[in-house]
Write a structure and sequence with these properties.
five-stranded mixed sheet, binds histidyl-adenosine monophosphate, eight-stranded mixed sheet, alpha+beta
Length: 448
């Protein structure tokens, strides 16, 4: 038997329905915030990730799925979404669009050669947003609030927002110097990777997975102490807007993020749920004001975040949040004889073309089996075909809830079903949940 690769998942059945439901909620929230969907390729030139994410990061130095294609090009399966979106922004000259800033969202698979464990996969799905073309601290707060609102709408309670500022270039240079001064006398205590990081990119030392518990790491200077006045002021403004939006957060000076393109605001949203495990960062992001120009575009500010959908599903499961994924059919078309079957084929087609969700029998079950199958599918109506009634231009329709039956003229069947189904209609709400009657809505709007 050929099995799937380590760190990859087959998602099907109820789990697939939950993923679709969550994606639908995310899309609905993005629409409210006026973000537009973007789809970029799963593979890109390797250079894109080297230049944007940074050579000394774990993602680039250890985790990339690199290969040469048949034309001898260096290709990488994308480890994250930001680099591809910014490449597309520049290549398609989106900076020239009248609509600025450009607000985009994506939802797709990413690839990282990591050691798999719960919440850490090699093929992962990220939903993310990027806002390109505004440096207003208000946008930083909006991006954080968008992420928080998605978790809230889904009913997730245990989340903790950590924010920090990496400051502007001047602040980072000063911090760099302080880090070198701190670590240099103890460089022998650092792991081999960190010795190189200290020379090339000292900030990356703070992100080390080997040395992170050591004393020298814990006594390292904090970025917040090296922010210049302008960066400090900007960071306070972001906090002001978060307060205005009523978003709870903690300023956590140890957040540096694992990718090199960040400056100013960075943030991580943690699962604050007992027994969640070590891979507890549900979503993370930050500002990247130098990235567009680094990749060859005009000097343009940007900010974004991404959340791992696998980790989000784990969090929903841990908090025992039931998603309203139970489905029903409008009608199940039943038949026995060959002529009834011929009629069923065309009727099912006609009903589907007119927007009804309809199923029929494909495996030769008798009527009893078909009744059971219709119940399994939660069918609201049963359309029971009978040769004699068909000759009279009539069809028997049974309400599967009240068990009432009616003979309906063939010409009126669409109209009849439409009317009858109205009594089953979804409760409906603005949240975009489309939960069915009787299901609890996890929408924040409804909680209030
Ligand atoms: P990141 O922190 O590398 O940021 O990943 C964002 C989220 O993706 C993580 O918080 C986690 O939920 C999920 N994730 C990452 N790696 C894995 C993995 N191996 N298995 C499962 N889930 C994982 C970025 O990717 C940035 N591009 C975010 C961003 C967008 N910054 C600005 N714009």
């Amino acid at each position: 038997m050929i099995t799937k690769q380590k760190g990859c998942h087959d998602i099907y059945g109820d789990e697939a329905k939950k993923w679709n439901y969550v994606s639908h909620i995310i899309e609905a929230v993005c629409e409210r915030y006026n973000y537009n969907f973007i789809r970029t390729p799963i593979f890109e030139a390797s250079e894109l990730f080297h230049r944007s994410i940074g050579e000394e990061t774990d993602v680039v130095s250890k985790e990339m799925y690199d290969f040469k294609d048949k034309g001898d090009r260096e290709i990488t399966l994308r480890p994250e979404g930001t680099a591809g979106v910014i490449r597309s922004y520049i290549e398609n000259k989106m900076y020239g669009d009248a609509m600025q800033p450009v607000k985009l969202y994506y939802n797709g698979t990413m690839y990282r050669y990591e050691r798999p464990q719960s919440g850490r996969d090699r093929e992962l799905t990220q939903f993310g947003v990027e806002v390109i073309g505004s440096d207003d601290p208000m946008i930083d707060a909006e991006v954080i609030s968008l992420a928080v609102n998605i978790y809230k709408i889904l009913g997730l309670k245990g989340i903790k927002v950590n924010i920090n500022s990496l400051g502007d270039q001047e602040s980072r240079n000063n911090y760099r110097k302080a880090l070198v001064e701190h670590f240099k006398p103890h460089s022998e205590e650092l792991c081999e990777d960190c010795k190189i990081r200290l020379e090339k990119n000292p900030l990356r030392v703070l992100d080390c997975k080997v040395d992170h518990e050591s004393k020298i790491m814990k006594t390292a200077p904090l970025m917040t102490d090296y922010l210049n006045e302008e960066s400090k002021k900007r960071f306070l403004e972001v906090q002001k807007y978060l307060d205005l939006l009523d978003i709870e957060y903690v300023v956590n000076p140890s957040i540096v993020r694992g990718l090199d393109y960040y400056n100013h605001t960075v943030f991580e949203i943690e699962a604050d749920i007992e027994g969640f495990g070590s891979q507890n960062v549900l979503g993370a992001g930050g500002r990247y004001n130098g990235l567009v120009s680094e990749l060859g575009g005009p000097e343009t500010p940007g900010i974004g975040f991404a959340m791992g959908l696998g980790r989000l599903m784990l969090a929903l499961e841990k908090e025992q949040i039931e998603l309203p994924i139970e489905e029903s059919m409008d009608a199940f078309v039943m038949y026995v004889s060959d002529t009834e079957k011929d009629y069923a084929v065309t009727l099912v087609q006609e009903l589907r073309m007119n927007g009804f969700k309809v199923e029929t029998e494909y495996t030769g079950r008798g009527l009893k089996g078909q009744f059971k199958q219709a119940d399994r599918l939660n069918s609201k109506f049963l359309i029971i075909l009978n040769d004699e009634e068909l000759r009279e231009n009539q069809i028997k329709i049974k309400n599967n809830q009240t068990k009432e039956e009616e003979l309906v003229e063939i010409d009126y069947i669409l109209y009849y079903l439409d009317e009858q189904l109205a009594s089953f209609e979804d409760e409906g709400c603005d949240c975009g949940c489309h939960h069915e009657e009787g299901h609890e809505c996890h929408c924040h709007d409804h909680e209030e």
